[in-house]
Amino acid sequence: QVQLVESGGGSVQAGGSLTLSCEASAITASTYCMAWFRQAPGKEREGVAVIDNGGSTDYDDSVEGRFTISRDNAKNTLYLQMTSLNPEDTAMYYCAAVRRFTFGRRCTINYLPGTHYWGLGTQVTVSS
Question: Are the C-beta atoms of 122 and 4 separated by less than 8 Å?
Answer without folding.
Answer: no
